[in-house]
Amino acid sequence: xxxxxxxxxxxxxxxxxxxxxxxxxxxxxxxxxxxxxxxxxxxxxxxxxxxxxxxxxxxxxxxxxxxxxxxxxxxxxxxxxxxxxxxxxxxxxxxxxxxxxxxxxxxxxxxxxxxxxxxxxxxxxxxxxxxxxxxxxxxxxxxxxxxxxxxxxxxxxxxxxxxxxxxxxxxxxxxxxxxxxxxxxxx
Length: 187
What we know:
mainly alpha, about 55% helix, globular
């Protein structure tokens, strides 16, 4: 999928597939497996999904505000910046990118054990995100500019926000899969 140009129906299908894949790949992991880390610096499967839940949660009230007809701020109305910021973020989050990124402090997962409900919590949140995506399909998503829930100085289109959500999920799904592929992963 070309994340930079993906349309809404492709993103909805990808989001639904990510939820199904999360259930089939990680849904039956034990607490020890969910919380196992390959090293102190790397995240566990549970931390990957807790991070996605935390970062995606910031989009839900923004989408609700769009659905209520909120007006763009002056900052969001500035030309050029939204298109540029969204595309750069999508490119940097692409799972094919080998560049490591540091999560904003507010989106870092807990360092202690992650609750075993984390996969189900992710799937439930994913269902809400897909519902919101469908609820906005009648809008001109490329022209609606929002402020990033992670960095208040960054703006991008709601369409790019959906692309960011999906590419970010793919990136961390693959990261979680690499954890389970480690030879020392608990069986």
